[in-house]
Amino acid sequence: MANFLVIGGSGTTGRRITRRLRAAGLSVRTASRTRGDVPFDLGDPAGWAPALDGVTAAYLLEPELRAGVDHRARIPAFVADAVAAGVWRLVLLSAYGVGEAADGHPLKTAEQAVRDSGVGWTVLRPDWFAQNFSESFWLPAVLAGEVALPTGDGRTPFIDAEDIAEVAAAALTDDKHDGRTYQLTGPRTVGFGEAVELIGKAAGRTITYTDVDAEVLVRRWLANGVPEDVARLLAGLLVDVREGRGAVVSDGVDQALGRPARAFEDYVAAAAATGVWN
Fold first, then answer.
1. What's the pLDDT tens digit per position in 110-140?
2. 12 contacts 129 by C-beta, under 8 angstroms
3. Can you give the pTM of this predicted structure?
4. CB 73 within 8 Å of CB 42
5. Cβ(75)–Cβ(110) under 8 Å?
6. Domains of the chain from N-terminus onward
């Protein structure tokens, strides 16, 4: 039996949250399609009960943003089952800017379900993860020596996933975060060209940043099997950065933890020390 459930427990934020909770001596169950303590698919309600057995607090995320998916049958349905099973605290990973999204946006739907759950809830709205350069989308490009994105001279306050995880762990274990929506960013905005330059210096390699047209990037993603609606969604978010419509610096980390968010330079130094960019 576990008191805490971490959906996506092997992911960027999930594994960091799990590590913190277990280090505090707490009982945690991770749930994912392939690498969790229990197999879990947000699209398959038949497998939810084993994940929820004995759980009192859960970390949720919506991994599927494709059009054509009935998002009302995912997070909202899972939240209802979780509350019925005895969960009394929910922490949702959302995204920066969801508050201004159109009704029906999957993350806006998820946020509303959590807020209407009748139990303690916290919503986390982070900006682009700094770890996208070392663990996710942009790592292959960094390793290849050229990061090509449609962001121009735009800047964004990258958030360290360690900060997201620390806020999430705090929200899962302390009711002072109930009813709060935290906008999570780094302490300053950083341009993608600057970010790549900092990474190159830390890695001791030449890595360049190239501004490309969004349609060029979409075609590359389509060739690599990314669904078109997802490719266009992500490209649009990057264009927002180019046009100055990206996230602004927020003090959400300070509000939640009483300390400033980690600097991008600190993230780069820590990631470089692992050899991930060698």
1. 999 999 999 999 999 999 999 999 998 899 9
2. yes
3. 0.94
4. no
5. yes
6. 1-126 (3.40.50.720), 128-159+185-247+262-278 (3.90.25.10)
